[in-house]
């Protein structure tokens, strides 16, 4: 089983976009087909909503792989240069 760690860029990502972004689906259409065929689980439950919102802490599973979603890493504020 392959594990993929995925860092969100905002509060959420939709399931079909996650599958494409992680390379688990080559196209958006393929991602939607995986979901429609019942081959995707979110937090251990079958998920049939192609555009459900996923948030940090959730785990998405497809045959052969699991994806852990992580919150975005907050960047430290820039320190102004002093002369």
UniProtKB/TrEMBL annotation:
Domain RNA-binding S4, first and last residues per copy: 13-77
One Pfam entry name: S4_2
PROSITE patterns, per database record: S4
Membrane spanning stretches: none
Superkingdom in the source lineage: Bacteria
Keywords of the record: RNA-binding
InterPro entries documented for this protein: S4_RNA-bd, S4_RNA-bd_sf
Designated name of the protein: RNA-binding S4 domain-containing protein
